[in-house]
Amino acid sequence: MALSIGPADPARPDFVGEVTGIDLRREITAGEAAAIEDGMDRYAVLVFRGQPIDDAQQIAFTRHFGPLEMATGDIARADQRRLAMEVNDISNLERDGTVLARDDRRRLFALGNMLWHSDSSFKPTPAKYSLLSARVIPGSGGNTEFADMRAAWDALDAEMQAMVRDLVCEHTQIHSRGTLGFTEFTDEERARWAPVPQRLVRRHPRTGRLSLFLSAHAGGIRGWPRPEALMLLRDLTEHATQRRFVHAHVWRPHDLVMWDNRVTMHRARRAPPDQVRDLHRTTVADSAPTLEQAA
Ligand code: OGA
Ligand code: MN
């Protein structure tokens, strides 16, 4: 069966596509990779159902879209890691497969995924694509929601667009976790996750479309008083995450969902804390820091 991509929701023809006619367990062709990249340009999020892949297959698929990013944003100690450095552990599991204790530091840190964000916006070069593979899904809850930041930009009035067009934000995981009251960072973690600058408005290198680049990690705007910066970022995030810009993905085991972090935000929704939720994420790094990319 040939590869085919169509809208996941016919009511929204340009946000979230569903891909059929491909088996991600085998090596894909250059033509298939190009068609998927074209699909990402159009839909920003692509859903692949029924893909029972392992980590090696997920990594091989991911490499078609650029350099792999390592899971250095993780708070787990090396001796606590369940997965290779090429894979982000998006689970609530200990190495032995038991569910993390309610007050475990790794679990509390991971609750930050429930804030609207763009992956690795706290790294000097942020993420291009993220690919999230569902291995075990809880009985209820735990959806992932996506917001279309191109549509959010288009819907701003001209005065607001002019005001934010050239702003530069400071992003750090210390800020996003701090908004949840998670402040117990070691000096080493604070140094590792020092703030990095990111443009607030970016241009997609292939489509030329502008989009808002927001994330829970954004904790300031260069040259602005901090409360005023946080208020504007809160206002913009509220605007950008109105239901008309949002799609909720309801997971089935073996789904793989791929999104473009340059033009979307996403967040996890609450799941029962005692049930296993195990997803594995691979990430493609962007080409350069956003300030070095064409505006
Ligand atoms: C991620 C993430 C959301 C979720 O994998 O980057 O934010 O629903 N996941 O687990
Ligand atoms: Mn994320």
Tell me about this structure.
- This protein is α+β, with helices and mostly antiparallel strands.
- The protein is built from 8 helices and 15 strands.
- The protein has a single domain, classed as Double-stranded beta-helix (4-Layer Sandwich).
- The radius of gyration is 18 Å and the shape is globular.
- It starts with a strand and ends in a 10-residue tail after the last strand.
- The mean pLDDT is 97.
- The structure holds N-oxalylglycine (OGA) and manganese (II) ion (MN).
Helices and strands, with pairings:
Elements: E1 4-7, E2 17-20, H1 30-43, E3 45-48, H2 55-62, E4 88-91, H3 105-110, E5 127-136, E6 144-148, H4 149-154, H5 158-164, E7 168-171, H6 173-178, H7 187-192, E8 196-199, E9 201-203, E10 210-212, E11 218-221, H8 226-240, E12 246-249, E13 256-260, E14 264-268, E15 278-285
Parallel strand pairs: 2-3
Antiparallel strand pairs: 1-2, 3-13, 4-15, 5-13, 5-15, 6-12, 6-14, 7-8, 7-11, 9-10
The protein binds N-oxalylglycine and manganese (II) ion (MN).
The site of N-oxalylglycine has 10 residues, from strand 5, strand 14 and strand 15.
